[in-house]
Amino acid sequence: MSDDRCFATVMLDEELWRSLAAIGGDHQVAWVHGCTLERGHRGDHRALAYRTDIQGYWVQWDESRKPRLAAVGEANQPRQPAPPRQPAPPSTAHASPAPVSQSAPRGDALWAIAAALERLADVIAAAFDSTEGRGRHGRGPGSDR
Question: Which residues fall in a compositionally biased region of kind Pro residues (predicted)?
Fold first, then answer.
């Protein structure tokens, strides 16, 4: 690490880490990232968390907010977060998109939904996995209750 770099680091929460791991597929995602900006910079800290051929995924954070992901069309450092893309129109004439809250970026909402679906899939898979013990909440073979 160079002496002229910011020394701030961030540890990703599980939701953000899983989102990055899902993007990368076989890519190993680090839990801890260091700021790549110059020492004494103003505003959010930034670190390149994952890069594809056409897009870079940057983690942005400061001391008062949890880290968030910013996807940028080129793999260079983002100057501003990329604007969210408009979704394709619904294929059914009767469908209408739900209203989008302007308080949070659409990308953050999509990542939260993806993480929630992944957790739900894990819970469902664990519920049907007969090789695991039932734990303290259920009666297993040989219990005297």
Answer: 80-90
Q: What is the pTM of this model?
A: 0.45
Angle formed by the axes of helices 106-127 and 14-24, nearest 10°: 90
In a domain, 20, yes or no: yes
Give the tens place of pLDDT for each residue, 69-82.
877 765 454 444 44
| Domain region containing 29 | 9-80
How far apart, in Å, are the Cα atoms of 144 and each of 131, 135, 138, 141? 20, 14, 12, 9
- pLDDT tens digit string along 42-61? 888 888 888 877 788 888 88
Residue 50 contacts residue 59 (beta carbons within 8 Å): no
Q: How far is CA 89 from the centre of its chain?
A: 25
The number of distinct structural domains making up the chain is 1
Contacts of 113 (CB under 8 A, 6+ apart): none
Question: 60 in a domain, yes or no?
Answer: yes
